Amino acid sequence: MRALETVLTEKGYVDPAALDAIVDAYQTKIGPRNGAAVVAKAWTDPIFKRALLDDATKAVATLGHVARTGDHLVAVENTAKRHNVIVCTLCSCYPWEVLGLPPVWYKSAPYRSRVVKDPRGVLADFGLTLPKDTEVRVWDSTAETRFIVLPMRPEGTDGWSEQQLAELVTRDSMVGTGLARRPSEIQR
Amino acid sequence: MNGVHDLGGMDGFGPVEPEPDEPAFHAAWEGRVMAINRAMGAAGAWNIDMARDARERLPADFAFRASYYERWERAMEDQVVAGGLVAPDEIAAGHARSRGRSLPKPPLSADKLDPVMTRGTFARPAPAPARFKAGDRVRTRNINPETHTRLPRYARNHVGVIERVQGCHVFPDSSALGKGDDPQWLYTVVFEATELWGEDADPRLKISIEAFEPYLEAA
């Protein structure tokens, strides 16, 4: 155990069992499957999609199977004309409740420095090339608002259930550094 | 403050390197550091703005070399010492010499995690009507405070458009200093890339920040 935890525990400020529970929650319960369920619902239910884009916190709260979400969640929609990307240039703000802890690259200097200036170059690092005439919109999370990208629904998924669709929704597609997977990219 | 945390627009950091199947933590101690920060926040030792401020005030050479959770750990050591919660020699020894002071709230217990795992609201009653509305042109102020601010350097002294009014929120510039919530209206302000990066920038690129009203003036 590192010195800080030992000292704070002995001083009575933290309870190691509570720390165990927090770590466990991020390892087993809170992750991008929550966000994927939200996206799949929006792809299949136009009324939910409208509610999500109006007030994502309220809309997600109506989904019993998704973890509770705090205030100020904002969903932004990708279209053929516009691709959204999320960043926090000042620290590591990220929609933890729907995507889990941010990956190292999201917190790293290469991503945070460059994505506001050369997002197409950053997307190329992820193997993603957008059409030249697609507008790129970068959202810098400089306050307590949190953003999640609603990716485009892949073609060839007519009639799919929410559960099937959720398998196509990657973490990166909800950050904007990827697209939802095509049906051919998953084993069914 | 104009610290090394404020990275937007800098060059030279190399490519982004995504890691396939990345774990939540790369070592057990990282999870403990993350959890300690949550637990100390829940007990009222500090708020999120104070925690960010402490990380930003780390020595620049350390901040550049250290990993993410190393920065968190060192900043928390600074916070507990500066707040008089722990003596410096206790950190050095790795053990407490005496029981701690009482914090504003009881220590977080494992069966009461909800307030920690769900973000609280940062919205506050508005002391005055919003000065701007969607569609208004604004210029960000050229401010360079030595204390905490959430207006990134790359977006200072530039003209943008109010896209959304996000409500009236806790003002980090005040909250980080322990000076209270000082609620301020918060806006999504969108800039053309050419406004921020010059005429050679991508004409199909827009960047937005979340800007508090004191950061803005009418343009």
Can you give a write-up of this model?
The complex is a heterodimer of chains A (188) and B (219). Chain A has 188 residues and is an alpha/beta fold. Chain A folds into two domains: 1-30, no CATH class; 31-185, Nitrile hydratase alpha /Thiocyanate hydrolase gamma (Nitrile Hydratase, Chain A, Alpha-Beta Complex). Helices cover 43% and strands 12% of the residues of chain A. Chain A has eleven helices and four strands, in the order αααααββααααββαα. The mean pLDDT of chain A is 95. Chain B is α+β, with helices and mostly antiparallel strands and 219 residues long. Chain B folds into two domains: 28-117, Cyclin A, domain 1 (Orthogonal Bundle), CATH 1.10.472.20; 137-218, SH3 type barrels (Roll), CATH 2.30.30. Chain B has helices at 28-42, 48-56, 60-65, 68-82, 88-93, 114-117, 172-175, 193-197, and strands at residues 137-140, 159-169, 184-192, 205-212, 216-218. Chain B has a five-stranded antiparallel sheet. In chain B, helix 1 packs parallel to helix 4. The mean pLDDT of chain B is 96. Strand 3 (135-140) of chain A pairs parallel with strand 4 of chain B.
Low-confidence stretches of chain A: none
The total number of structural domains of chain A is: 2
What CATH architecture label of the largest domain in chain B applies? Orthogonal Bundle
The count of helical stretches of chain A stands at 11
Number of beta strands of chain B:
5
Number of domains as seen in the coordinates of chain B: 2
The fourth-level CATH homologous superfamily of the largest domain in chain B is: Nitrile hydratase, beta subunit
Q: What is the rounded Rg of chain A? A: 18 Å
How much of the sequence lies in strands of chain B comes to: 15-25%
How does the helix and strand content of chain B classify structurally? alpha+beta
Distance between the termini of chain A: 44 Å
Q: What would you call the structural class of chain A?
A: alpha/beta
